[in-house]
Amino acid sequence: MPGQDFLNCASRKGKIMFKRFGELFEKLNVALGAVSLAAIGIGALTTFGGLGLRHLTKGGVEIIPEKRAEQIANLGISAITFGLLGYSSGVALAYGAAMLPQEVSASITAVSQTLKRKKSQVQDDKSRIKYTYQFQSDKIDIYLYKVMTIKGLEDKLVVGRVEDKSSHKIVIYNELQDYQIDSLCKIFDVDYDQDKLVGKGFSSLKPIPDSAIVEYISAHKTYIYAVENSFYNCSVCKGCTNLYGDNDIVCGIHPYGLDDFQFCPDKKLDSRLVYHCYEREEIIDNFNQQIKLSKAYIQKTDEGYHILWDEHFNRKFYFEWSGNLMQDSDQLNQLGSTNLVDYVQFFSSREIIEQDFSGDLDKINEELKGIAIAQISDKGINLFVKSPSLNSGYTRVYRFRFDGVPLYPYESIVPKKIRNDYNLLNFVEFLKSI
């Protein structure tokens, strides 16, 4: 490995350099130690001499003035102090010099191990390379195009670019030609019923509808020909470059089709096809594997969005192909996120606790006295509510399963205030508050 050879060479040269530096440093350190010890000795003699002369002067024997004796003593103390500092510094530097080659060697070893980990990580990531483009697609402009009708064009089909995803505002469109409509019918498998094409969508990097539709149909040209000439099921072969042949369109890898698979593991798509982050079938299939134990399922549509079905709580959530929760969708308030990946993570770790509120009817009726009446039915628990502030005085029936899950969570009579948290317990608390 080139990087490892470089590190080995650097290690050898480093050791030679530090050996020479150590020899020079050892000589300088010996000299510093000798000077420091001499300073300590001279300082000690000077200090004791100065103090002795000072005491003699105080005793009446004046050899030199007392002030001069005091200055000599202070000079000796300073010499001792500097000597001790020099000696301590020499010892510390010697220890540091001894440890430095070991630290450098350890650093080189650490860098080498890091390079090995990087190499291992690159090898481990090879299996995920095929998903790189999808998860980076939000960094570039990917347009969503849909087939639709425009009033005033005599029911002609057009392909339009969705500019504002939240409101699905169309800012630019192009009328479809008959051959394009016929090709789209084959691609979306709508039995040549062009009315069923309305709402179908696809992704493209092309900003002009005319260019986008020409490229999209061209990328499926082989598949379109296969639908017309093959006896096999080609529903999972859309856009696949493994299809070939002049007369009979076949796949060299799976010549008899893939009736039992949702997507082909050997599929090679046309490089002109573009996908949003979570548009690919294999990504959605992977998500479904993660959340199936919590009774949830993601269904991809051809209209530019996914539906996440919560089969246990009878709820559904709509996400764009890019993974963003759609504006008018139901949502999990407790999650605090509008991203598909976070919802998948939530459902993959969710624990379902079975409950039965059929034995709590007396308590519920006591709490809702004068507001509603709870009764048992064949399918669960019914709440008969008559409230002028809620439904203009008419009696409405709100139906729940025995575990408190609403049978019809999206019917129009559900109060908007609790629409995203609608269940038996929350509805009872809501009724008590109005």
Architecture overview:
This protein is an alpha+beta fold and about 425 residues long. It folds into four domains: about 120 residues; about 110 residues, no CATH class; about 70 residues, no CATH class; about 80 residues. Helices cover about 45% and strands about 15% of the residues. It contains eleven helices and twelve strands. The strands form four sheets. The protein has a four-stranded antiparallel sheet, covered by helices on one side. A three-stranded antiparallel sheet has the order 7-8-9. Strands 10-11-12 form a three-stranded antiparallel sheet. Helix 7 runs parallel beside helix 8.
Detail the topology: elements first, then pairings:
Elements: H1 2-58, H2 66-124, H3 132-136, E1 143-149, E2 157-164, E3 169-175, H4 178-188, E4 201-204, H5 209-219, H6 221-229, E5 243-244, E6 250-251, H7 281-291, E7 296-300, E8 305-310, E9 315-320, H8 340-348, H9 361-367, E10 372-376, E11 381-386, H10 388-391, E12 395-400, H11 424-433
Antiparallel strand pairs: 1-2, 1-4, 2-3, 5-6, 7-8, 8-9, 10-11, 11-12
Helix pairs in contact: 1-2, 7-8
